[in-house]
């Protein structure tokens, strides 16, 4: 049975899942969720994600939510296809796990906030909260100082090759490059080179083209 991703084209977690599928070269059906009418808060959507958030995912009879859990499933279930997205060696797995946590708990908090304030609110006809933007930008800068040190020693955050860690960052980094927050990346040469590298992946270009 076909893979289905229920999501929204503006949603970074939705794009995270689409990028994992794209890196694996898998066919899938993108099912747009009308969030303005609250489709994500009603059945049948909430039978897949009871928290009423996009994305939701189906692969045959398997139904999942939480974008990072979905990408892990894709990486493991389709390990023999497309780009390898995780390591086998236990020590490398452990290091990758550290940076997966860092992305979810430290990078994504200010990153998603900035994305929402600067890019999504104006689309909704709302005004960005400049105080919240300043605060989130300061938090992100501190995270990127740590990334700069890490990326001066290894090409990617998890190690020498592109993994789920880097993949999880792509949608928010893409959004930040369209805003004044780009300067925070540009001020850190290793971070800037890493951002350019991960955004140049052909699999990401396919996701952007599919959603535009
Ligand atoms: N941790 C979740 C976050 C999902 C999420 O925040 N989705 C947003 C769109 S980007 C959403 O559905 N917001 C609507 C709501 O929370 O009611 C994931 O990674 O899948």
UniProtKB/TrEMBL annotation:
Xref: InterPro entries: Glutathione-S-Trfase_C-like (IPR010987), Glutathione-S-Trfase_C_sf (IPR036282), Glutathione_S-Trfase (IPR040079), Glutathione_S-Trfase_N (IPR004045), GST_C (IPR004046), GST_Phi_C (IPR034347), Thioredoxin-like_sf (IPR036249)
Key word Membrane present: no
Residues annotated as domain GST C-terminal: 89-212
EC code: 2.5.1.18
Protein name as annotated: glutathione transferase
Catalytic activity line of the entry: RX + glutathione = an S-substituted glutathione + a halide anion + H(+)
Keywords carried by this UniProt record: Transferase
Gene3D superfamilies found in the cross-reference section: 1.20.1050.10, Glutaredoxin
Domain of life: Eukaryota
Residue stretches making up the GST N-terminal domain: 1-82
Coiled-coil regions listed: none
Family from the record: Belongs to the GST superfamily. Phi family.
GO biological process: toxin catabolic process
The keyword Acetylation appears for this protein: no
Molecular function GO labels: glutathione transferase activity
Top-level enzyme category: transferase
One Pfam family linked to the record: GST_N
Segments traversing the membrane: none
